[in-house]
Write the structure tokens for this entry.
Amino acid sequence: MKNLKILWNGILKENPTLVLVLGTCPTLAVTTQAINGVGMGLAATVVLICSNIMISLLKNLIPDKIRIPCYIVLIAGFVSVVDMLLNAYLPDLHAALGIYIPLIVVNCIILGRAEMFASKNTVVASAMDGIGMGLGFTLALTVIGSIRELLGSGTLFGVSVTAGLFDPISIFSQPAGGFITFGCIIALVNWLTKSSAEKRKKRSGMACATCAGCDGCKEEGGEEEQ
Amino acid sequence: MRELLVIFFGVVLVNNYVLAQFLGICPFLGVSKKVDSAFGMSVAVIFVMVMATAATWPIYQYLLAPNGLVYMNTIVFILVIAALVQLVELVLKKYIPGLHKSLGVYLPLITTNCAVLGVTLLNIEEGYNLLQSVVNAFGAGVGFMLAIILFAGVRQRVDTADVPKAFKGMPIALITASLMSMGFLGFSGIVEGIFGK
């Protein structure tokens, strides 16, 4: 029951992209098509689940002072595995995602969850958190990707939808369209959850401070060393 | 020389890492509340980008590629960057405490800045030589600086504006970024126009 709550927490209440505003680079970069959003989301989910499980297993073994480099190496290992698997079995997706696959290493969602959740919780809870956060990320990417694909090239998952209705607005395939779509969706989420909007705003303000946060701790750790 | 200028201005204006390639969005959104901190952050980013490129390019060409270890590059590069950031911090703290004081907070943040890992990987992918790679890294850093400082300036004014409640904070910042990105679209083709292709 508790684990199910953790799962839902990641998908909806603390959606990493729309509420916590983490991992913005891949969110904006690969969502020109819905299918790329799904692919990126699932790739990150796999890495997130594996790294969460490994880190919560090793949490007592990793020395506190060098934990961030340890986490990064672990995550980079899993990312390399995913990179090679995609290259072998889904070469089209691998080509479409390009540089953003190795960049999953520095996705703040993964390091953030390692630092904030997996290093403090049991293996099962961490795995559930990984699944929840990963699916939340995938969901957000798919929604943004669908909107941008529909408006920007008039298709949805590669199927032509709006032919004859309106001409595609090509700016939505451009970076500018990515920023504006993402901004409007966050605004929509804020509006739908008006009652707790203040609380959420505070949290989203914390967002990049969180990825800053894990490094902030590292800085403290570094100072202790000397 | 012309080739280097094309790379430099191309990456600053046309293929700006933040506004056209979506690299380094996290610090772009997170550290852009004030112009001062945006400036500090971007100086640190330029510095680490150039250093990281100068370190990873030889490692890739002379160590990983000849030994068939290309698949290790993500792990090796991120380790080099993390170590470099720590090293730079220690050196600055010891020898240039003034600079360390103003950049110190931003240095650890850079490890997780995807623009830094991105520039090292893209240099390899583009097949640049060492000099071209360093120029590209420097240009990417300058482009980051240009984008984040302009953005911070706009954001300081937007903060005092009367924004609809749901759009306050992150959403309006993203829409501001979108308008800036549209502005940068206007630069496409300009570099070839000036320097010839």
